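Consider today's protein:

***
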Amino acid sequence: MRNLLNGFKDFIARGNVIDLAVGIAIGTAFTAVVSGLLNGIINPLIAAVFGQPNISGVGHFTINNANFSIGDFLQAVLNFLIVAAAIYFLVVLPINKLKSLRKPAEEEVVEEALAEEVVLLTEIRDLLRVQAGASSGARSDNSSN
């Protein structure tokens, strides 16, 4: 039981869970922004064009007491596309731009570190060759006597 609780504590304390909680909170706030966009701008435009407050009022028909609504589906698709576009243009695109700006600086640091390592490894190799040459020269002197 103690191991179970310790495992749960470790799981909760991980950064992934905290990141997830922050993401959900921001997602909820972002949903309110997108809903405001839909209700304040998009749906009134739809009402002006179709005479309905939103697309869900369009395309209702009944067959054998079964009610169909093409508009409900179209409204869900439109809402999805607006949310996806808003997330892409307001979140994904700016983050990708920031990452691309930071990438060259990080690559330069890595390249400089690799260059320093290559110089150091070259010096070590040269020293080992000198030592190997000196020790093989000492051996050949001893073997001739």
Remarks:
- Residues 126 and 132 are 10 Å apart (CA to CA).
- DSSP finds three helices and two strands in the chain.
- The radius of gyration is 34 Å.
- The longest strand covers residues 60-63.
